[in-house]
Amino acid sequence: MSIDHHHAALAQRLTVLSGPSGVGKGSVKALIQEYYPWVWLSVSCTTRKPRPGEVDGADYHFVSTEQFESMIAAGEFLEWASYAGNLYGTPRGPVEERLRAGLPALLEIELQGARQVRRAMRDAQLVFLAPPSWDELVRRLTGRGTEDEATIARRLDAARQELAAEAEFDHTVTNVSIEQAAAELVELLSSPALAAKLASRL
Ligand SMILES: Nc1ncnc2c1ncn2[C@@H]1O[C@H](COP(=O)(O)OP(=O)(O)OP(=O)(O)O)[C@@H](O)[C@H]1O
Ligand SMILES: Nc1nc2c(ncn2[C@@H]2O[C@H](COP(=O)(O)O)[C@@H](O)[C@H]2O)c(=O)[nH]1
Question: Which domain of life, per UniProt (predicted)?
């Protein structure tokens, strides 16, 4: 679960999007892919089973626990974490390729992964996607209808901790509408916001 420190120099164009389960990260990501196709999104590996409609290689690389563990052993992840009973990780190669070319990269990952990126890449930009209210978060997560009650309870437990960590992030985008949240995020991906942030650290 570590990122080599020599990657710090590559971090300037790395943006991490996090937020509690059900807040709308996937919805915002899908809209960005449709309307802002120049934004490059990392495709994670997971041991979770695909949801109906999810496509292997596009939404995730769906892998077995054995495959995931051998990727950990081979140092193939930029970061990885165990979340609500499954493993999730960002393949290192494609992200490094983008950053080396000086191009922006966007990761949508949970809190432990965001913290790993923050520790190793101090100039990475961390964006927190927040719900308009707790009740609305519960409504969205249950309304999606893709998880059983026990899984929803686990995700809501994790959500409490994730909401408490908002202050660790550089920016908060509140997901009132998917279109507005995507536009705000894309604005943060473009260089002026990043330049201002970096300038403030000089
Ligand atoms: N701005 C919004 N207003 C109303 N409903 C929304 C909004 N954004 C997302 N939703 C709905 O909330 C549910 C959860 O959204 P989504 O699956 O994108 O969340 P997520 O953050 O990716 O969750 P997870 O981390 O569990 O994958 C979906 O049913 C989605 O349609
Ligand atoms: N640390 C990482 N977290 C990841 C990665 N890919 C996705 N995620 C996060 O996991 C949860 C659950 O996702 P779901 O698709 O099962 O609902 C969510 O918070 C994602 O952001 C990753 O590569 N690393």
Answer: Bacteria
Cα–Cα distance between 182 and 62 in angstroms, integer?
A: 26
| CA nearest ligand 1 atom 24, residue | 21
- What is the whole-number distance in angstroms between the Cα of residue 189 and the centre of ligand 2? 20
Nearest bound ligand to CA 108?
2
Interface predicted TM-score of the whole assembly (ipTM), two decimals: 0.96
The pLDDT tens digits of the residues spanning 44-98 come to: 999 999 999 999 999 999 999 999 999 999 999 999 999 989 999 999 999 999 8
Ligand with smallest separation from the Cα of 127: 2
Q: Which residues contact 181 (CB under 8 A, 6 or more apart)?
A: 24, 28, 129, 173, 174, 175
